[in-house]
Amino acid sequence: MSGARTPGTRPADREVSRVRILRAAAEIAAESGYEGTTISKVTKRSGLPASSVYWFFRDKDHLIAEVIRHGFEQWISSQPRWERDPRDERPLAEGLRAILSRSVRSLPQTPDFLRIGQMLLLEAREVEPEARQYFLATRDEVASSIAAWFTSYFDAGLRARRPELARDLAHIVLAATDGLLFAHQIDDALDPDEFVEVVVAIVEQAVTSD
């Protein structure tokens, strides 16, 4: 950005500074929400000057959007993939149970980007922040992956009769995990295995009812 001082000459140094800013902004936004996040708070917590922040990010909205992007990329790399090996002959229920059993156990350690994204979804503004748009796009990306995974289990007849089913099931999975995410903020005694069995039962019922 013109007029801003570069936070280092080597690419490695610049990346270290960028990540420090992203982590500081993520912590503040998770604590104080979008409105409560300011560049001055980010500079104080990161220990870097405002010129460094503006070197990487054009404004607060761009910064929060990048917080979500950075957090999502880190989080998704640690999650089980919604990709079915063609050689996998497990029934749908067993495959779904295996994926959810791994993924729901990461929710108690909720990544900051998920908290921030959920807050943005619940806040209405005349001008939709770039960060909110990006979070919605990441959710749509995940929903598409889950829907494709469900579709891989459907025969041609089911796909033709109920073309919307896979997408509907993907939304059910996302809605259920959203609920579990909120529930963990209230009661950390929830049994993840029971949650998984409920979701699997709902999916099985939806697929077999015609």
Automatic annotation (TrEMBL):
Domain (HTH tetR-type): residue spans on this chain: 15-75
Any Pfam family the entry gives: TetR_N
Species of provenance: Actinocorallia libanotica
Protein name, as recorded: HTH tetR-type domain-containing protein
Record-annotated DNA-binding residue ranges: 38-57
Regions that span the bilayer: none
SUPFAM superfamilies in the record: Homeodomain-like (SSF46689), Tetracyclin repressor-like, C-terminal domain (SSF48498)
InterPro entries the record matches: Homeodomain-like_sf, HTH-type_TetR-like_transc_reg, HTH_TetR, Tet_transcr_reg_TetR-rel_C_sf
Record key words, sorted: DNA-binding, Transcription, Transcription regulation
Signal peptide boundaries: none
